[in-house]
Amino acid sequence: MTSTATLSKADVESRVIAVLNDMTADWDLEINGGIGPNVRLMRDLFFESIDVVQLVVSLEQNLNCKGIPFERLFMRDGDYVEDLQVSEIVEFLHAQIGTH
Hints:
By secondary structure, this protein is mainly alpha-helical. It contains four helices and two strands, in the order H-H-H-E-E-H.
């Protein structure tokens, strides 16, 4: 298995998309071109708060990296963000996994 510290941004994106595809496989979504960098969790995938929790757990397991400070991704200025693009998650994770 590749160490998460050596994962490229493309590798991280591939893993995030794989996790999202797995999570939403039976959700009956129609996304032109499938899940990609510009897909939004709330608007396009209709995520609810429990889905965000499941995503965090699944990403930590997939990346074999515990303790990622996801609150920095999901909260800004003390408020929860309204939505996130896959690309924002990838950027965040790519920056974080090198520090774990």
